[in-house]
Write a structure and sequence with these properties.
Blueprint (H helix, E strand, L loop, with lengths): L1 H13 L43 H16 L4 H15 L29 H5 L1 H13 L9 H9 L11 H11 L31 H4 L16 H12 L27 H8 L3 E2 L7 E4 L12 E8 L4 E7 L10 E7 L5 E3 L9
Antiparallel strand pairs: 1-6, 2-3, 2-6, 3-4, 4-5
Helix pairs in contact: 2-3, 2-5, 3-6, 3-7
């Protein structure tokens, strides 16, 4: 341990503000990443009388297939098709409803579309394919919808009071779309993951690069982002770039240029301050793709530098799945990990601009 600390001091001199060799001691459940899959174009619908999804009737699956088919006709990506199914689940339970609710007594159909002229006639709103087509056209008109959380993307169209209303329906929508497409795609490890590629697993581009412990605290261990390879901060900053559409050099967000005040983003210790300086939102609610920030010592993080990770998945039981690098004890310290964590353990969640809408 004393050798690690001395190397860290050298690294502070050579490349200031970097995050070094930190080891967490969380006693939490680890979840392995799923294998990767490739295609994320429109998913073809494969539905027959033998197609079954537990918890859903034949009529519900038929309606889901109509939504997916409308998406395919409009060349909507599979993640867009999944968002559309998610919204239909959240609005009607995948049923063509001939009634509305308190806020919208004139709402009808799969998407509970209002009688305001924007969604066509009563017959249009009650037709699964036509109503889905109208929803999808509105979704495609939302600037940058692909980078938004699924629930936020849906809310940009539906304009319901709670922008996170649809979040709990996302896992079910994924399950339905996977089954109705014959299981020929996965949101894991492909361009299908949302937002950006959060949840895609270990796609960190420098996973085989040397750590500063192996080659010294100098330029040989420095990533293009200005952090050291395979540190928690380098993986988290990669995710930030990736989700904001910057996936190749020159990267948009760097250690030395992230903050508008000229200071480095720095070690995990300073990330919350970096977000504050940039004017990006922070909070206590996990959102997929948000950076997880642990202050020094919080949840077993390093007592000097803390730790950062990324929210991979949000569960309904008060926990979330985080992903990151350098979160396990040696000899697995500078590798990718996932673990399930209580929402109350981290010090804060650091949101991207696409995640600023709150409950």
């Amino acid at each position: 341990m004393s050798q690690r600390k001395s190397l860290a001091l050298v690294a502070l001199i050579v490349i200031p503000g970097l995050f070094f060799g930190l080891v967490l001691s969380f006693i939490l459940l680890l979840n392995p990443a799923r294998p990767a899959a490739a295609d994320c174009g429109p998913a073809a619908v494969s539905l027959d009388r033998n197609t079954k999804v537990e918890g859903y009737s034949a009529e519900q699956l038929k309606n889901a297939a109509a939504v997916m088919g409308a998406g395919k006709a409009l060349n909507l990506s599979v993640k867009g098709q999944t968002i559309s199914v998610m919204v239909a689940l959240g609005e009607s339970g995948l049923r063509v409803l001939d009634y509305g609710d308190g806020p919208g007594p004139d709402s009808r159909g799969l998407f509970q579309q209002r009688d305001n002229g924007a969604w066509g006639s009563y017959a249009d709103r009650m037709d699964p394919t036509i109503s889905a087509t109208n929803f999808i056209k509105a979704l495609q008109a939302v600037p940058g919808w692909e980078l938004l959380e699924p629930t936020i993307a849906g809310n940009k169209v539906q304009r319901n009071a709670d922008p996170y209303h649809y979040q709990k329906y996302w896992p079910e929508a994924v399950k339905i779309v996977q089954e109705l497409s014959g299981g020929d795609f996965s949101l894991e490890g492909s361009d299908c993951a949302l937002p950006g590629k959060s949840g895609a697993g270990d796609d960190y581009p420098w996973k085989n690069s040397p750590t500063w412990l192996q080659v010294g605290a100098g330029s040989a261990a420095a990533s293009p982002l200005g952090m050291f390879y395979r540190e928690c901060v380098d993986f988290a900053l990669w995710r930030v770039n990736q989700q904001m559409g910057s996936t190749t050099a020159p990267f948009k967000f760097l250690n030395g240029t992230f903050r508008p005040d000229g200071q480095k983003l720095g070690s995990a210790l300073t990330w919350k301050a970096g977000w504050d300086a940039k004017g990006w939102a922070t909070g206590n609610t996990p959102r997929v793709g948000a950076v997880v920030w642990y202050a020094p010592g919080a949840g077993g993080a390093d007592p000097t530098y803390g730790h950062v990770a990324v929210v991979k998945e949000v569960k309904d039981n008060g926990t979330y799945v985080e992903e990151g690098y350098n979160g396990n004890p040696p000899p697995d310290d500078h590798n990718y990990y996932t673990r399930t964590v209580s929402n109350t353990v981290p010090s804060a969640f650091l949101y991207l601009p696409t995640q600023e809408e709150k409950k």
